[in-house]
Every structure is written in structure tokens, then in C-alpha cells.
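Handout, section B. The chain below has 222 residues.
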Amino acid sequence: MKKLTVLAFAGAALMFTACNDKKETVKDAQEVAAKTGDAYKVDLATSNVNWKAFHKGGFAPRWGTLNLKSGELTVADNAVTSGDFVIDMTTLKVDPASVTEADKKPADLEAHLKNEDFFNVTKNPTSDFKITSVADLAGELPKDAVAGSNKTVSGNLTLLGKTLNVSFPAKVTVTEGKAAVEAKFTVNRTDWGIKFGTDETDPAEWMISKDIEIGISVNAAK
């Protein structure tokens, strides 16, 4: 298990970086935005969630993907007004390209991230994100934000049964019969109670970052 401990958090999201001190605003759950306008169904084949994490100091980065199970955006007056997405935690994957050590296996890391040390997917097979607001982006764009970000999206993110509200810059576009949301942001996994590898009395665990970089690419059609 000590070998897995050093691998361990690599992981994610659903799930933002150790070498980047910028964290997104996290607060208590907020009222979910009302569904106003037309419903746009998320295209599960072209939508995804990416995650990336590091060991302390930015060493041994790991990254991978998660699939959406379902999702919907609502659009009124050419603007996204609400949305909700269900993430299938059982689909968590580690990209083999991120595991370069000869004695490490992506499958072992996947199994560890799915067990009770991290996301406990047997008990919590899904997570979800529900938009609480979409506002025009104000202020300077963070350097790690997606190019072309034009909105601040806030929403309730539920992991391990705990719900917190997170806000982040996003590129939100609405065209004829289509809508898309693209974003990249960083959160501290311990806010949701994912604390494995945070014991500073154990050097093998302490070297695992608390931060996760999450990338979202959602495409939806009317």
C-alpha cells in the first residue's frame, strides 16, 4: 500500500494544481438556478471531464478522464441560464502516459482512486454539478483559465455526498441550436472530505497534493 500511497493522489474530479496557488472560490451550497428557456441535451459522446494532479512540488503529474452520465443546459435569449450534469465516477481513468515509473501501473492507481481512500465509487457511483448562476466575467482572467473565457459559472458540486458551491471562469457559447461550456479550474479535494495523503506526519502520504485541476468540455444541442 505504501507504493500506492506515493502514487495515490494523482486524482480527481470530478474533481483543479499543486504548482498553482490559485484556487477557485468555494462556499456553502447555493440555490440552484431555475430552468428557464429551452432545454439543450448534453452530447455525451463529445463531452468530458479531465483531471490532473501532482505530488508536492509539481512532481510526478498524473492525469486522466471521467465520463458524464447525463446532462442538460437551458438557454434563453441566447444565454445559458441553468444546467445540471451527472458524472459517472465508475468511469474514472488514468492516462497510461502519465505513469512513467517502471514499477507503477495505471490500473493500480485507478483502483486506489476508486476505493474508500478517495472516491469510494461503490458507495458513491455518481457525482453531480448543478449551476447556480452564470454571470459576465469581471476582473482579470486567471492565467490558467480557458482562452476566451467570458463568464463566471457558479454551481453546486457534490462529491462523496458533500455539496459545496464553486465558482470559476468559463467560455460559454450559444449558437443556433447549440450551446457549449468549456472551463479549467483548481480545487482543494479536502474541502469535500477527501483527505487521504494529507497526514503531514507521514512523509510518504504528505507528498501527495491536495489540489486537483479539473477541465470541463460540455457540448449540448436543442
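Note. Residues 106-114 form the longest helix (9 residues). Compare this with the example in section A.
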